[in-house]
Amino acid sequence: MLDLKFIRENPDLVKLGVGNKNEKNTVDEILELDKERRDFLQRTEELKAKRNTVSQEIARLKKSGENADGIVAEMRDVSDEIKSLDDKLRIISDKLNVLLLWIPNLPHESVPVGKSAADNIEDRQWLPEGFKFENEAPVLDHVELGKKLNILDFERGAKISGSGFPVYVGKGATLERALINYMLDLHLAEHGYTEMMPPLLVNRDSMTGTGQIPKMEEDMYHCEKDDLFPIPTAEVPITNFHRNEILNESDLPIKYVGYTKCFRREAGSYGKDSKGFLRVHEFNKVEMVKFVKPESSYYELENLVNDAEDILKALKIPYRILKLCTGDLSFSAAKCYDIETWSPAENKWLEASSCSNFDNFQARRANIRYRKTEDKKVDFVHTLNGSGLATSRLMVSILENYQTPEGKVIVPEVLQKYTGFKIIE
RNA sequence: GGAGAGAUGGGUGAGUGGCUGAAACCAACGGUUUGCUAAACCGUCGUAGGGGUUAAACUCUACCGAGAGUUCGAAUCUCUCUCUCUCCGCCA
Is the dihedral of CA A358, A361, A364, A367 positive or negative? Predict the structure, then answer.
C-alpha cells in the first residue's frame, strides 16, 4: 500500500510508476475520493467536538439538578446528523481503500523501465569450470531422465491429484529432501538465518498483507468453508509472522528461512511451458524473508541475492542474474532480481529464484513497524524475500547438468552426504 | 461439537454510564544526588487521522479484541463475530 499522503503530494510520480508497471491508473479517482473524504471528516469531527463539550455541559446541569431537556433534544438531532455523515464517510473510505489496495508498489529508481520480460537486463552470469553451452552427447530432458531412472512420476501424480502435481519416487524423493536440507543448513550456518516452519494455510488478512490479494486472488487455491488459502509461497506466512507488531530497532535485521510446500493454481497458463517441472501446482521451496531498516534495504537485497547464489555455486549449476524491468516487476515489489538456471535439454534459462525488495509496501499493508532507538519514534520496516531456492526448476537443472552419457545422474558433491548415495542409475 | 471464564497502553493490572486517553505499579528514557555501582528523589513516557506551521507550538477527532446497537453521552449496558484459557465429548 502506498501512503495516501504521498499520493496526494506526488500524483505525477505515482502515475508514472503505476504506468511503468502496466497497472491500472486510478490516481485521479483516488485524489477525488480523498478530497471528499477529508471534507466529510472535517464536518463530522466538528459536530463530534460539539457533542463532546455539550455532553459535559449536560452532565453538569444534571448534577446541579437543573433542567437539561432542551439541549438534550438538540443534541439528539446533532447525533443523528453525525450518524448519517459517518455512514457516508464510511462508504467513501471503503471505496478509497479498495482503490488503494489495487495500486501497486512503485519501482525503485534503479529499476530499468521496460514493457515486459523481454526488457529485463542480464546483470551477470556464473558458469562452473569447464562448462559449455554446446552438448557433445545428446542429452535427455528431466522428464525422460525421471522416467528412465524411476525417480519422478508425473503421470501418477496426475492420477492422484491432477496435472502439475509431481510424485518423487525412491532416490528422487531422497535427492529432493537432500537438496532442501542442504539449502536450509547452508543458510543457517553461513548466512545467519533463523529457521521457521509456518502454517501452509493462511487467512485473508495475511494474503492481503503481503499483496497477493486482491490482484492475484484467482491464482490462489481457496478453502471456501474456512476462507483459508494454501500458501503460494512461504513469504506470506513468514512475513505475516510480524503483522501488527512493533519491532525493536536493535532486533533488525530479522532474517528467517523456511522450507514449505507452495501451491499455485497457475490459472490461464495451461499448455504454456507445462512440461514436467516447468510449471507445477505444488512444489517445494526454501524461502528467505528479511525485516530491515529502511536505509539498508537495497544493500540487504544484494546480500539476499548472494545468499541464493551461494547455493548454486556450491551445486555447480550455471546461472544468470536478471534485473527485472518495471513492466515485469510483481505487484508488491520495488525492485527484483531473478536467478535463472541453465537447462541443457530445453536449451534455455529457467527461473529458479526471485529476490525482491518491497520497500515499505508490505509493511504498510501488514502494519509492521519498528521503534527507533534514538528518538523512540515508530516507522515502517522494509521487507524483502527471495527463494533460496525453489526446487522444481532447480531439479531440472541438476538432473540435466549432472547426467552421464549413459543417462545416469551423478549426485552433486555437496548433496552426497545428505543422500547417502553418489549416483542414480 | 457442548458448557463456562476472559480479551484494557511495552508489561502487570484498576476501572459497571459523564470529571477516564484511561489509576497504580513495573519497564524504558532524561535529570538530581553519588568515588563507581546500587538505592532514593524529580520529570518524561501511546497510536492513527484531520486542521495549522517553513518546521514546531497549538488544536480537533478516533482508538480499552473486531463489528453493529441503546443513549444527549459507552472501556463500562445489549447483540454478533474472532481469539485465548478451563472442563466435557469426538478424532488423531
Answer: negative
Contacts for A98 with CB less than 8 Å, ≥ 6 apart: A214
Say yes or no: Cβ of A15 under 7 A from any atom of strand B: no
CATH match for A4-101 among 1.10.287.40, 1.20.120.790, 3.30.479.30, 3.40.50.1100: 1.10.287.40
Quickly count: other Cβ atoms within 10 Å of residue A204's Cβ.
Answer: 13
pLDDT tens string A116-142: 999 999 999 999 998 989 887 788 999
Q: Is the CB of A247 under 7 A from strand B?
A: no
pLDDT of A264-286, one tens digit each? 988 766 655 678 898 899 999 99
Does the nearest atom of strand B lie within 7 Å of A79's Cβ? yes
Closest nt by CA–C1' to A371: B10
Show the low-confidence residues of chain A (pLDDT under 70): 268-273
Cβ of A5 less than 7 A from strand B: yes
Phi and psi angles of residue A203, each rounded to the nearest 5 degrees, phi first: -90, 175
Q: Which CATH class name applies to A117-424?
A: alpha beta
Name the closest residue (CA) to the C1' of nucleotide B18. Answer: A59
So what's the pLDDT on residue A418?
Answer: 96
ipTM over cut 0.95: no
